[in-house]
Structure formats: structure tokens, C-alpha cells
């Protein structure tokens, strides 16, 4: 039996490289939404929200867009019983929303995260991820991808943004 603490992990992207990917995604988002006055970035709780915060900071730095940041709160393990909540009141109708998560694997988490945006008329809903693993089982495609990585189903990709000492992308 293998102890999880002894499982080795290999760094795929350093902190600097991860930051470059996030900045490039911010430029792409601005290029595709430059006619807008503002956008909403909705980050999935955890590292997805950490990614959303970094995207919002980059967009504010490089563009005149008014960026609103919200956190999507739900239990990723119990989607069918867990309503998706915003961490604050926000008007989403007729807005451009970028749903942000750290890793797109099967697409299940992102598919469920899109639910609140499908209930109202939206101008545009797009998806941004740092890593796309390409094991899609749900019809979710990321509009903005930092890094595409082919992995086996047994491998695990970990994105660390909330701990500056370990920041980067790892393969376990």
C-alpha cells in the first residue's frame, strides 16, 4: 500500500511560467472582449478562485475593463444535491462571464459550474483554465487554456496558486 505523502510529484510549470500563462490568458480575454465595458470572472472555489483572482488582477493591469470577481461555491463531490452559490450579490444578466478553474479534466465540475449562468440571458459565457488534460466526458470546452497536457487517467494534475512557496503546476 502506498502512502500518499510518499507519492512523488514532478513540477510541470514553475511559478514564473504559471504567471506567464495567466497573463497570456488575460490578454486573450481582453482581445476577445475589448468592446465590453466590463466582465465578470467567476472562479470555482479553491484553486479555481485563486486563478480567477490572478486573472482579475492581470486584466485590471492591462485593460480598462471593469472586472467583477465572484467565487462559485458548491460541493464538487455532490453536484446533484449542492446548489451553486455566489459569494456575493451580483447582476449577471446580459453580462460577459468568464468561468475560471485550475484544471479541466472530464469537464464535470465546469459543466455544473455553468448552471447558474444558463438560467438567465447572458451576453457571453466563456471558460478559462490553466491546464486542460483532454479527458473530456462532458461537452465543455475551454475558450482560454494556459497549458494543454496529455496525461493518463491515473495521473493527477495539481495547480498551486494559493501557496507562494509551492506555486506552480505539478503532475503526480
Describe the 3D structure:
- The chain has helices at 15-33, 47-62, 108-113; strands at 10-13, 38-44, 66-73, 85-86, 96-104, 124-132, 144-148, 157-160, 168-171.
- The strands form two sheets. A six-stranded mixed beta sheet has the order 4-3-2-5-6-7. A three-stranded antiparallel beta sheet has the order 1-9-8.
- The protein has one domain: Rossmann fold.
- The longest helix is centred in the N-terminal third of the chain and has 19 residues, at 15-33.
- The protein is built from three helices and nine strands, in the order E-H-E-H-E-E-E-H-E-E-E-E.
- The protein is globular and about 45 Å long.
- Mean pLDDT is 87; it is low at 1-6.
Task: Write a compact overview of the structure shown.
Residues 1-6 have low confidence and may be disordered.
- Helix count equals 3
CATH class: Alpha Beta
Beta-strand content bin: 25-35%
Give the overall average pLDDT.
87
**Total of domains:** 1
Q: Sum up the overall morphology in one term.
A: globular
Secondary structure: helix percent: 10-25%
What oligomeric assembly is this protein in?
single chain
Q: How can the largest sheet be summarized?
A: 6 strands, mixed
Strand order in space, largest sheet = 4-3-2-5-6-7
- Based on the structure given, which CATH architecture is correct? 3-Layer(aba) Sandwich
Low-pLDDT regions: 1-6
CATH topology: Rossmann fold
Amino acid at each position: 500500500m502506498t502512502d500518499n505523502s510518499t507519492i512523488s510529484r514532478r513540477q510541470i510549470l514553475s511559478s514564473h511560467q504559471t504567471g506567464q500563462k495567466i497573463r497570456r490568458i488575460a490578454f486573450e480575454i481582453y482581445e476577445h472582449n475589448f468592446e465590453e465595458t466590463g466582465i465578470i470572472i467567476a472562479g470555482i472555489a479553491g484553486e479555481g478562485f485563486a486563478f480567477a483572482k490572478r486573472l482579475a488582477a492581470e486584466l485590471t493591469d492591462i485593460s480598462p475593463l471593469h472586472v467583477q470577481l465572484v467565487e462559485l461555491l458548491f460541493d464538487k463531490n455532490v453536484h446533484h444535491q449542492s446548489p451553486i452559490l455566489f459569494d456575493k450579490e451580483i447582476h449577471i444578466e446580459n453580462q460577459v462571464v468568464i468561468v475560471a478553474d485550475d484544471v479541466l479534466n472530464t469537464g464535470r465540475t465546469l459543466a455544473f459550474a455553468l448552471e447558474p449562468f444558463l438560467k438567465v440571458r447572458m451576453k457571453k459565457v466563456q471558460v478559462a483554465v490553466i491546464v486542460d488534460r483532454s479527458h473530456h466526458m462532458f461537452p465543455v470546452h475551454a475558450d482560454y487554456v494556459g497549458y494543454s497536457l496529455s496525461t493518463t487517467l491515473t495521473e493527477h494534475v495539481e495547480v498551486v496558486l494559493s501557496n507562494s512557496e509551492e506555486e506552480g503546476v505539478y503532475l503526480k
